[in-house]
Write a structure and sequence with these properties.
Elements lengths: L2 H6 L4 E17 L2 E19 L2 E7 L5 H12 L23 H4 L3 H18 L4 E17 L4 E6 L2 E11 L2 E11 L8 H12 L9 E7 L5 H10 L2 H5 L20 E4 L20 E6 L2 E2 L6 H7 L7 E2 L7 E2 L4 E3 L6 H6 L3 E8 L11 E13 L2 E5 L3 E6 H4 L5 E9 L3 E15 L2
Parallel strand pairs: 8-15, 14-20
Antiparallel strand pairs: 1-2, 1-4, 2-3, 4-5, 4-6, 6-7, 8-20, 9-10, 9-14, 10-11, 12-13, 15-16, 16-17, 16-18, 18-20, 19-20
Amino acid sequence: MDILQRLRAQAEQVEVFHIQSESTQVRFEANSLKASQVEEISGLAVRVVKDGRMGFAASSDVTATEKLLANALESAAYGDPTPFAFPGPQDAPDVACYDPRIAELSISRLVEIGQEIMAYLREVDPEGMVSVELRRGMERYTLRNHTGAEVAVTRTPLTIACGVDRVKGDDVLMVYDVQGATLWNEGFMAPVQRLAEKLRLAQQVVPLRAGRMPVLFSPLGAIVLGFPLMLGLSGKNVVKGVSPLAGRCGEQVFDPRLTLVDDATLPGGFGSAAYDDEGVPHQRTVLIENGVLRGFYYDLKTAARAGVPSTGNGSRGLFSQPDPAPTNLLWGAGETPLADMLAGIEEGLWVENVLGLGQGNIISGAFSNPLALGFKIEKGQIVGRVKGVSIAGNVYELLRHVSAVSRETEWVYQNFNQPYVLLEEMNVIARE
């Protein structure tokens, strides 16, 4: 008798989650190869509902089933009341998230790619310290529950991160980028080339006055706007009553230029798969449409507490229970070319990246961050890098009135596809 059958005789609901993953990493630091390693993770996690309460246990020892079952059942006596049922068998979309070209990448090939990236960036900035990290993954999980549902997901996540640090006296320059996907892309050098262009623009340091001015956020810089919004759209924060967006579905909350979609069905997306980690089919979920709040992303538990179906956003590790998490978060493209957005700025700030993302009272939408990298815009042109500059505001106020959103979008931080965003006026703090 297998685990599922044995538990079924002692609990109302049973779920068995098996994960196997293998990861190969190479890391370059300070212009040289620093480390390479291979990690393998395998384990079982069990959830049971007994007398209406959730029990959970997990182990990396897949043979220790007796202890695992006993721990799961015992923990149910002290678990949370469970308002939801594990899903039955359901069809899911066919989502491309496995690529043998990634699965078969060797350490030597990863080192070659890293060396190519490093050589390119060192040529652009011979004085900088280049760092590169590549991580190739092979992930497989299976899930079975008492309803007869059986789910198997195999993914090949690939991450390429690179950066350049340069210190000259009191001048510290940090430029970096990170990309991720589950399908191989021969154009992996494109983000590296964008980083090189940022390095070129950063060579000249220019002063910037403090005060209110137009602020143009690059896709990477716009994370400072998107991150608080992501938290506000979480079903977990909604049911906890801490999201500023709770109870506002159907309202015109933001500028009509803002559309935000969570889409795990996107071919090759870093967060793409056919099913979430609870066996719920992934889907395309419209969160904000032309500024109107349409909904939130949920796992089974938060959806049940909100009285709505799960959106297929349950995410977990081996030793943690599911929580709602975004998959591929897409900020809809606008109608304005980036060149036109720049051309209309007489004097302003380009935000490329910020320090301290996620610090402070972030869930309220408030942020206050110094810039890791920013540029001064003068008469429609980037004229140089600025130092000692910070920005502050609240995304729920700022995104009510957006001046322009670009046609161009870029993938940033693996899971986010974002445009350039122009705010007509924003408070900028600059060191004199």
